[in-house]
Specification:
Mean pLDDT: 83
Number of domains: 1
Helix content: 10-25%
Number of helices: 1
Distance between the termini: 24 Å
Structural class: mainly beta
Low-confidence stretches: none
Oligomer: single chain
Shape: globular
């Protein structure tokens, strides 16, 4: 994992935590910025995001099988039309 010289992702962030991990929401359509950061830090994802038949971007996944943790990321649009970019960091043990 690389930590120096990573691209910045600036904006309004919100997050929630629970026993299984952390949910991070970046307001707006910032998927490309987030994807660039993750690619620079971790390399290619285990499951690359794609575009489904409705034109929505599906979630990408980074997995750490040796630790049991995972990072999911994607772009969502709410019923009201608001857009946000989402990151889910799943703790080890929650994937069982």
């Amino acid at each position: 994992m690389k930590t120096a010289g990573l691209p910045k992702v600036e904006g309004e962030w919100r997050y929630k935590t629970d026993k299984d991990g952390v949910q991070i929401y970046l307001l707006g359509s910032r998927f490309g910025d987030l994807q660039s950061l993750l690619l620079a830090a971790f390399g290619p994802p285990a499951i690359a995001p794609d575009t489904n038949s409705d034109g929505q971007i599906t979630m990408g996944v980074y997995a750490a099988p040796t630790t049991g943790a995972a990072i999911q990321y994607g772009h969502e649009e709410t019923i009201g039309g608001s857009r946000y970019t989402q990151i889910l960091i799943v703790r080890a043990g929650a994937l069982q």
